[in-house]
Amino acid sequence: MNNQFKKVFGIDLGTTYSGIAYIDEHGKPVIVPNAENQRLTPSVVFFDGDNIIVGEVAKENAKLYPNEVVTLVKRSMGEPNFLFEYQEKNYRPEEISGYILRKLVNDAKQHLGEEITDVVITCPAYFGINEREATRLAGEIAGLQVRQILNEPTAAAIAYGTVENDNEKVVLVYDLGGGTFDITMIHVKPDAIEVICTGGDKELGGKDWDDRIIQHLVEQFQAQTGSQEDILDDHDTLQELQLSAEKAKKTLSQREKAPIIVTHSGERAKIELTRDKFDEITQDLLERTMSLTQDMLAEAQKKGYNSFDEFLLVGGSTRMPQIMARVEQAFPTVKPKIFDPDEAVAKGAALYGWKLSINDELVRRVTERTGKLEKDKIEIPEEIAQSVAADTGFTLEAVKSANMAIRNVTSKSFGVVALNQDKKKEVVNLILKNTTVPAEVTERFGTELANQDTVEIRIMENEVSDNKLEPEQAIEIGTASLELPSLLPANSPIDISFRLNEEGRLEMTAVEITDDRKISVSIETSSVIQGEELEEAKARNQNLVIS
Ligand code: AMP
């Protein structure tokens, strides 16, 4: 294999389970099992002295050592205040996620007997700048070259589009995982995959369905034993209930009833949960996914998409029969399909990484031959495709299929804080959510006062689709300060440009027009691990035994 061509692995870094895949010589994605021979690894990390244990064993230990086990860390990605303390050291979500990545990569390395360096890691579509940056850093901490952070529904659609690419269609991807919900409209074409619109909730997933079962079990325990105690205060009982709730939920995907035994302080209750009862106590969660779906469809309509052809269900939680039934009821003309719910995301990420590198190689060779800088989607002469196939070990057909364009949208809006006519602060959005990326927008603002020495620019992220909003509706993701020449009058023009790349990274440039002073910043978020702390985390990760 040509040494310029690096194999790229796809990683689904999930809230509850993670997986890793690569592309075989025919261009087909293959999941690599872990050392325990499981295709998916629980995203659970157990701090065991000097060892870090990730996966099934960690999950089993959650009950015995609740204070040493971290679960659902993805929900805290990009959160500045999350710190897990172990043996007087603090660990950030990026570092803990880095352990999960190392486990996947180490096991895959063992299994395949080859080095793994380059990866594409997925994240929920509505992850903002902070969460994306945290995901990228988790990869860096694990010693990986992160080629791209890719949206999970896009990955699922790529996996689907590659299997069923015979004709053009508009697909809705309803992705309900362990901790997150995404709903995305995607236009699948023979030579391109375009994301039209995306929405979701990062705090809604299978875990919430489990929590409803737990609540129900507590009530039933109290009713049967007469106890008024809040048994969830007992960590062991809580851990036990979490495991049995998830198990009962999965049973209810197959059967009408699930028996559950709850024991606490020597008392015991036997509870039978029926599917009807389960559906009843979780109905509002299901309805929330449907209302987010309707919101997204309304957004898509504004872009001229009034209908769709297929409805894909991905994510482990779409196995709950209530989901399919409700979708069928809401959209009677489209038969929803469950599509490879556990593996589509990792496979799509691998396909994407592979397409990126094959495509780069094709473009590089065409550019070399024509002497012109070629970009993106170009006609590939047969002999160049053949030479890439020969040098990379992929079949010619696979190489040709890699030449596909993938276009994404931003799931967030970005703006700056400005004063309105009444001198009240407001956020002015330059880039609106669901705009196709890359995107570049420039808008002219004015200085507030005469003879002002600097302009402070506050860069804001939000989920509002309007041009103007209250500052409370947005979060600050960066600031910049532009020095001004002296004696400028009030309302002197300042041009602010935002450039958002394919992966959701934002660059801001502000130009003072009169004297042509300029400042550019690339948003480095303060809520992720950085500097010395990052270097320490990387060093720790390389030295730790992760199994
Ligand atoms: P994911 O993040 O896509 O791997 O989804 C994991 C979620 O799917 C977890 O909340 C699991 O409990 C849930 N899940 C997996 N299998 C089933 C099943 N058979 N029935 C219901 N939920 C499931």
Measured as a percent range, the helix fraction is 25-40%
What is the architecture of the largest domain at the second tier of CATH? 2-Layer Sandwich
Write the CATH homologous superfamily of the largest domain. Answer: ATPase, nucleotide binding domain
Q: What is the helix tally?
A: 13
The CATH first-level class of the largest domain comes to Alpha Beta
CATH third-tier fold name of the largest domain: Nucleotidyltransferase, domain 5
The computed structural class is: alpha+beta
**Spatial extent as radius of gyration:** 25 Å
Strand content: 25-35%
Number of domains: 3
Number of strands: 30
What does the main sheet amount to? 7 strands, mixed
Question: What is the 3D shape?
Answer: globular
Question: Alpha-carbon distance between the termini?
Answer: 30 Å
Pfam families: HSP70
Family: Belongs to the heat shock protein 70 family.
GO molecular function: ATP binding; ATP-dependent protein folding chaperone
Protein name: Chaperone protein DnaK
